[in-house]
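Hi U.,

Before I forget, here's the chain from the pilot set. I'm dumping it here mostly so it's searchable later in email.
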Amino acid sequence: MERLSASGVSALPELKGGFGVFFINSRMQRIILAVDRFSIETACFGIENGRLCFSDRADAVPLDSRTISFQSIYDYLYFHCVPAPATIYREVKRLEHGCHLCLDQGELHRGSHWQPRFDEIRNIPLASRCEQFRGLLRQAVAAEAASTGKLGCFLSGGTDSSTVAGMLCAATGEKARTYSIGFDAAGYDEMEYARIAARHFGTDHHEYYVTADDVVSGIAEVSAFVDQPFGNSSVVPAYFCARMARDDGVSRLLAGDGGDELFGGNVRYRFQQLLELYQRVPVSLRERLIEPTLDTKLGRSGIPGLKHAAAYVRNSRIPMPDRMQSFNLLSRIGASQILDPALLELVDQGEPLRAQRHTYAGAVAVAGSTVNRMLHYDWKYTLADTDLPKVRGAVGLAGLTVGYPLLADEIADFSLGLPSDYKLRNFKLRWFFKEALRDFLPVAILKKKKHGFGLPFGLWATRHAGLRSLAGDSLAALEHRGILKAGFRDELMGQLLSAHPGYYGELIWILMMLEQWLATQPETTRFSPLPSLERNANRMTAAS
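Structure:
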């Protein structure tokens, strides 16, 4: 605190780990809000009647009135969350990861105190890197083990959670308490991998199988707890996992989030690398032979080989980051098919993609390879805006706290120096991570495909009357609010869901969670299409 008093925001880079700073020095007329590198903690603020108001939650910023932004509703449906700096409220902003806000003698400034840069160092032997990495992992987990209270671990059976659980056993010399969630649904249950990891490390393992009835009750609890709409369905099983740990006396859980985004573990990185190969084909060959051929009737004939080749070339020609939105639900189905025409007239449908382009442009400035640019991009959209709020909300609702050893500053800094082909080599995801832990993790875990706590909602919604009724009623309410297009609810809950439960189930989920959250809002909360832009504020006081 003394450094913040003396140096202001220039002292923020010295802070380590996850933090949310709310610093007030009335003598110096200085207020500083700041969050850590990845937004492990959050800070929200608004400006009203010359006052700077703030809180760690969007719905707790002490304003006299709040307005639901139609643009934020659209953005939520696009991203399945409301990405920072926006929130669902027109009057409230959220600090982006690694950023700060400073009110200094009446002048308001916003900036970033963490500017990562990828520096691919290649003159270090692989064995030395592996040893250093394992040491950093042990240190990060040991630091968490030193915290007070009873400690436990999420264990999905994936690479990251298994690594954290194994390292906790090694750090303490005791059986780590591990907690896993399963589903009685073919293709969704991964409990066996969690059991493999638990047996391998000798953990004190606990399991719970989530049911459709649990989901019905969990939806209501999660919706009432989170500070704005949140559409990642794995928040509900994560909550039941945290609740199981709480009932076992655990006060803090360790999560494996961050490994994919630091070391190249998401499947889309491999897919984009495959598409990038086309750019290596000589331009003359592409423009004179390949593309003219595929653009003809022959290329559009539906012949399997040519059909797939045409799709490959078509996607390869789309620039980044636009290319990554090829599978976006709102884009593929069509916003005009889902949303009320009057709502669409009030929002800017191009805003989400412009925001993504801006974020990706920042990645281009600090990273030379496509995979590193995607990692940097995902630090915002996957970690800060989606995964960390999911875990934070789940454990918070259960009354616990959470730690992320893989996001320790030292591990993040280490990842910045790795060559990009250590993260994605010959289409092998997180190559270095697995090489470094080859003698530590079970072979089955190293070879398994990524899954996590995915929820079989669409499948259950076709069979469970209570879940289907909750979804149908929620969509009917959205139609009544003028958000959902008239008639689309019947089509979606009818033939579309039955034909493709997994695909359309995800859309139903995010719509349902929007309505469930909106239903928790007080009557004083209004709706407005106006964007939340508060600029050039002068001479403000603080309210917290």
